[in-house]
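Figure caption, in words: inputs first, then the predicted bound structure.
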Amino acid sequence: MSNTYWLDGEYIKKEQSNISALTHTLHYGLGAFEGVRCYCSDEGEVNIFRLQDHTNRLLESVKILGLEVSYSFDELVEVQKQVTKKSNLKNAYLRPIVFLGSDRLGLDIVGMDVHVMVVCQEWPSYFGKDAIEKGIDVMVSSYTRAHPNSLMTKSKICGGYVNGILAHDQAKKNGYQEAILMDTTGFVAEGSGQNIFLVKDGVLLTPELTCCLNGITRKTVMQIAKDNDIEIKERLITRDELYTADEIFLCGTAVEIAPVKSVDKTSIGKGTRGEVTNLIQSTYFDCVKGKIEKYNSWLSRV
Ligand SMILES: Cc1ncc(COP(=O)(O)O)c(C=O)c1O
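Bound structure (pyridoxal-5'-phosphate present):
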């Protein structure tokens, strides 16, 4: 288990990462984070996947929130590599987070201290190994994804995750593994912490970016699909299209590519991982492990 964190310019031991009880972000949720994974190649090299893209999105999230961090893009990239290196982990999950300090409580954040922390830890398969092959059962949530004017979807805002956690928890309590949230107009948005793709008649469908996070795995999936001559359409998707899809999968850094075998107990396609999902999933795993030369520019050596 990793023991070295980075907090505001210092490498510290996990035990030293005590945060004040008055930490503003703890109380109000205004902060932003990223989820990044590194993978070990067959040759034993550790590479962080799309580190630049994640760092860029972190800085964009921070900008959207009107905050400023005192570290440059290059410094943040380097710190994430160093924390990974010091963790001695080969396959791991990195969590850079920007949060407000404990200057004061209240909703006036002007001039408050902005902190940055990077943590690296193990996080094996999100839904379990079986799910990668056999798929997961999901439900359409009664919780709605927040309107972009409530919680801006281009930003991975800490507090925004309350919405996803409630949906995920509801799904678990009802015997499902994951939830799919609709947007405020009733169209399919995304999973609690994943983007969604449907396959219908050989075409890959995914919601436009108005109601969901601009996922880095989503972008990766779209590039893989393009390189395999699979047509992609970004458009409004209705709930009933979920039930009649040939294939569905969720994707994200944490869950990687997770096939969906049923929605609201309606079997999707043959109720197993479909052909297109299989192709995208296996290519994705080869790509993150550095097995596909043309995608190696997405890897940052630790
Ligand atoms: C709400 C939400 N949508 C989508 C994603 C997938 O994004 P990414 O592929 O960049 O991890 C995530 C994960 O971070 C998420 O939290």
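The mean pLDDT is 96.
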